[in-house]
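Our preliminary data section would be incomplete without showing what the modeling component actually yields. Below, a chain of 227 amino acids is followed by its predicted structure, encoded as C-alpha cells that our downstream tools consume directly.
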Amino acid sequence: MKFRRIHLFIGIGIIIFAIILRAVWVLSATGFFSIPLVSNYAFKYPAPIRMVDPSTISLSTYLSEQLSHALIGRLQKGRGLLQDRSFSLSLPEELLTMGLREKIRSDHWQDMIDTSKAQMAIRKENEAELFLPVFYRGHESPIRLWLNFSTTQDGKLLVELTDFWIGSWHTPSWVSKMAQKEYVDPAVFDLNEKLGQFMKLSKIDSQEKLLLISGELVLQIESFFRK
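Predicted structure:
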C-alpha cells in the first residue's frame, strides 16, 4: 500500500513537472520572456516569407483614384448615366503593406508594433501572411497571422485566420479561434462597414504578390464626388 502511494506521488510529481516545463518552453518560445538555458533552444527570431517594401502611395489615395477614374470614364461613355457598375481592383502587396502601416499609425499602435517592419505578403489561393513585430517586456518578437480571403453571399469580405504564430510558438487552435474573435472579426467588420458604402464584392482571387477583387459598385454618384 505504501509503495502504491509513493508511485502515485511520483506520477503526480512527473505530471506537474511536465506541465511546468511545457509552460516555461511556451513562454520562452514567444520571445517575450528570457529564461536561462531554455530560451536559446525554444526561440529563434522568425522571418517573413519575403520582405515587402511599402508603396509610395497610400491605400486610400489609390482606391479613391481608381474609383474616380472608373466612374468618370463610364459616366462619359453613358452620357451621365452609370450603366456599367461592375468593377475590378488589383491590390499589390506593397500597397496593402502601406495600408497596414497607415492603420497602425492611425490607431496609435506604433509604440507597440514596429511600423517599419510590419507587412503583408500575398500568396496564391487567397492567402496572406501578416507580419507584425511586437514590443513587449523589453523584447521584440513577431506575431505572424496566416489569413484566407473570400466573400460572403451578401457581398462582404470574409477573412479567416488559418494559422497563428507568436514568435516561435505555433499556437493551438483554441488560441487562433480566440484571436479570430477578438481581433480579426472586429477589424473585418469595420472594413466591411466602409466598403459597403461603395461596393458589393463578388469574388476575391490572388496571384503571388497580388490580390484581385471584383464586384459591383453600389455608391450614389452624387455623394461620392461630393466627398
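The chain has two domains: 2-42, 59-226. The CA atoms of residues 7 and 13 lie 10 Å apart. Preliminary results of this kind motivate Aim 1 of the renewal.
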